[in-house]
Amino acid sequence: MADSLALTPIALVDLLDRVLATGVVISGEIVLSIADVDLVYVSLRALLSSVSSVRAVTPQPFAPQPFDPVGPA
Amino acid sequence: MTTAGGLWLHAVMRDPDPARLTGLTGVGGGALRAIAAAGLTAVVCPVDLAEFGAEPLRGNLEDIGWVEAVARTHHHVAVELSQLGPVVPARLATIYLSDESVVGLLTRGRTGIDAALTRVSGRIEWGVKAYTSSAPRPTPAVAGSGPGTGADYLRRKRAALSARSEAATAAAACAEELHRALAEVAEASRRHPPQSRGLNPRAASMVLNGSYLVDAARGDRFAETVAELASGYGAIEVELTGPWLPYSFAIVPVEETPDG
Amino acid sequence: MTGRVEVDRDGVEKGLASLVLTIVELLRQLMERQALRRVDQGDLTDEQVDRIGTTLMALEEQMNRLREHFGLSPEDLNLDLGPLGTLLPPA
């Protein structure tokens, strides 16, 4: 099985589907501001939606937002 | 130990034999190294912040050639590591500045990572994509002249428009059926967002982009099932990719910390 | 060197033509759909329906002639809007 994993030719688009949005998804000390980088159209937006859904799953301790006059959600 | 460079996180495993890591290189050409904590092992390699720091990374991520080279190396390492045991790969371009930060990750994320390792152990992933069939639709007959041809033209146009929307509706329905059938025989399934047309010219007609987690021993049978089911759907063209390392089922959200 | 410049100029002309014709084609398709909706309302005489149809047919023929004059295929007449997809539906 490892052999077939290694030898199968892989299309970049299918690989990016997997490595951009999966695995251990955290913010390291270098925050991935891929949101600011216009990489390739929809695949970036796919990453954005997966990042935002990750945040929804992992509740953050409340931190006041600078432009939010309403306060905690 | 804090280094001046960065640490590219390749993957997290349970307990790989460190001797098997020697000689393997990762993204940027650096040697793979293990950092152990909380019963887990992070596999990292050193990277130069001149190329992988926050600012240069932004620019490099805009270069599809750079992204491709890095993604394929990242993937190659994950595949090599999978020969040593179950692997949860890191998302592309996850970079830390110190060993301590990596230890922090392992400690904070231990439960989720451990669950993911168990989930993917002994399993592979198949990718199934489906497109609206590109079979040519009948072209309108050459127009004549004389009474009635105007109305004929409108009829042809109306028929062409409804044929196109019917094809799209039928394709979507087939894709749903196919996904449901595969999800039932797989251990788990996941649907990906639409692909980018810049990378895949056919993306506009894609109606399914799914991943299916399957026991490695049953991998071939699953592929046969896909082929069998696909042959029954005239409205879609089905493409199988894989087998993959179970990327799509190794998702571990870990809280960020203000100080890393 | 001269040859390369000519190829580039052809490319620019072709690019401009395909842009302009794409917009014209978009309008033509929109008009066709409008016309179909109008006809579907059912209150037009047969003669009126026929006139609308022959007008649209002539427009389509003109479009094809223009397109061929610039050496453009039907697929060339489209605009890539990135995440919004293409301007015109796929042929």
Q: Could you characterize what this model shows?
A:
The complex is a heterotrimer of chains A (73), B (260) and C (91). Chain A has 73 residues and is mainly alpha-helical. Chain A has helices spanning 2-7, 12-19, 41-57, and one strand spanning 24-25. Helices cover 42% and strands 3% of the residues of chain A. Chain B has helices at 49-52, 54-60, 64-82, 99-120, 149-185, 219-231; strands at 2-13, 33-37, 40-47, 87-89, 95-98, 123-132, 188-191, 206-215, 236-244, 252-253. The model of chain B has no long low-confidence stretch (mean pLDDT 88). The longest helix of chain B has 37 residues, at 149-185. The radius of gyration of chain B is 24 Å and the shape is elongated. In chain B, strand 2 (33-37) and strand 3 (40-47) form a beta hairpin. In chain B, strands 1, 2, 3, 4 and 5 form a five-stranded antiparallel beta sheet that branches. In chain B, strands 7-8-6-9 form a four-stranded antiparallel beta sheet, covered by helices on one side. Chain B has two domains: 2-121; 124-247. With 91 residues, chain C is an all-alpha fold. Helix content of chain C is 69%, strand content 0%. Chain C contains two helices and no strands. In chain C, helix 1 (2-40) packs antiparallel against helix 2 (46-69). The longest helix of chain C is centred in the first third of the chain and has 39 residues, at 2-40. Chains B and C meet through helix 5 of B and helix 1 and helix 2 of C.
Mean pLDDT of chain B: 88
Residue ranges of chain B: pLDDT <50 for 5 or more in a row? none
Q: How far apart lie the N and C ends of chain B?
A: 15 Å
Percent of residues in helices of chain A: 40-55%
The biggest sheet of chain A amounts to: none
Spatial gap, N to C terminus of chain A: 48 Å
Structural category of chain A: mainly alpha
